[in-house]
Amino acid sequence: MSDSNTTDFTNPSTFILMGIPGLEAAHVWISIPFCTMYAIAILGNFTILFIVKMELSLHQPMYYFLCMLAVTDLVLSTSILPRMLTIFWFNSREIDFSACLTQLYFLHCFSVMESGIFVAMALDRYVAICHPLRHSTILTHPMVAKIGLTVVLRSAIFILPYPVLLRQWPYCRTNIIPQPYCAHIAVANLACADIRVSSYYGLFVQFCVIGLDVIFIFISYTLLLRAIFCLPTKDARLKTFGTCGSHLCAILAFYTPGLFFSLTYRFHQNVPLHFHVLITNMYLLMTPMLNPIIYGVRTKQIRGRLLRLFTHKGT
What share of the chain is helix, strand, coil (3-state, %, to 5)? Predict the structure, then answer.
């Protein structure tokens, strides 16, 4: 099949990933910060998993959910970065149609999964602060496992229509994707058919699935903050609120730019394509990199275990 963007085809065997359009000459230099962020994400998230596994005192619901978040971040970053580097370093732009659909499924599935994990973590903080005496009886190990399974199944089921719908459409315009990875709306825009079903379903996932997650988190933290402000002393309020600080930082880092970039991609008018693609790629790697740093720095138990680990190695 020709790589030309005018080739007629209804069932493409490959797509062409363009990398960062307009910045092809700088691909090698762009790969350096991306590689650095990916390395930090891999090291940080594996460190979180190792510390929680080795430290028995961390075998609690909050840290189980944190491990789920670390695994999600590892899969999310790995689903895009290695393929991106083959474009930046080796100019290997072709991607098989089925591989493209698999990549976008993993990308969107684990993004929705991460949102669900933040909801589970908000629930854990709510129960721990508003119902501290019942925390261990409400969030038992079987209950944590059920919540985790629900988050995984919800993501897998809601994102499954993405590749199913994309496989139905005929493609006769172009096989060039103007970014370094496959995403749902980017592939759908290549179809020469009415893609309103795909577009509307994507908006449904954005607003009704992730949007409901945001609403649930907002309600949880409203109730949680009300309980904190009812505490008798300022020290007690600060100490209790400190247990939620890392979670709030991670939530803001995930949802705020994510919503902005998603809406910009669908409705952008005056945003240069290369700027949008570059910033979106940085966001996809920024969250997996920041989460272990946020929880490692702000969570006393993880920070203490990490310091002891390096202290023992030093002695």
Answer: 75, 5, 20
